[in-house]
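Q: I'm writing a short methods note and want an example of a predicted protein-small molecule complex. Could you take the sequence and the SMILES for S-adenosylmethionine and return the bound structure as tokens? Please keep the output block clean; save any remarks for afterwards.
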Amino acid sequence: MAAMQADLRPRLRAIIDGDLCFHDADSGYATHNFHAFPAKFPPQLPRAFIDALTRPGDRVLDPMAGSGTTLVEAYLAGCPAVGVDIDPLALLLCRVKTQPRDLESLRATGERIVQAARRALRTPAALAEAIRARYDEQSRAFF
Ligand SMILES: C[S@@+](CC[C@H](N)C(=O)[O-])C[C@H]1O[C@@H](n2cnc3c(N)ncnc32)[C@H](O)[C@@H]1O
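A: Understood, no commentary inside the block.
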């Protein structure tokens, strides 16, 4: 354990001393831009640490996982990951963003949503009825 930590220390030092500015980097790949979330890491940040400090198959823990940027990067690097967060929206986003999906079933679901939206938007009365049937009073007031 001590030997492993000694080995990790210079690698950690090298990342911290390196360039950790990712302003011009693309963060829109994989599921990273699926939904807005405050204080998201740029994906390149956790990836730098994962690449330098883990071997494929190592487990990555993010105890403040936010919307799952670190978890997605761990997944892409071949590391199983565990995330925890106090915010239920963060947990939902983490689950959705790290769930492997079949593209054909996603396409079919998207098509059903578009068809339902088209039906609901046929007339203002149909739209009002669809909203009334589907949402509670608080949601309708928000709309
Ligand atoms: C900067 S974001 C995390 C970004 C994330 N690690 C990523 O990969 O993008 C900070 C997160 O910490 C969470 N948080 C704050 N206090 C917490 C606590 N006591 N326990 C668990 N999560 C907490 C917040 O809900 C927020 O989602």
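A: Remarks, as requested: The chain has two domains: 38-100, 103-142. Helices lie at 2-17, 44-53, 69-76, 88-97, 103-120, 124-134, 137-142.
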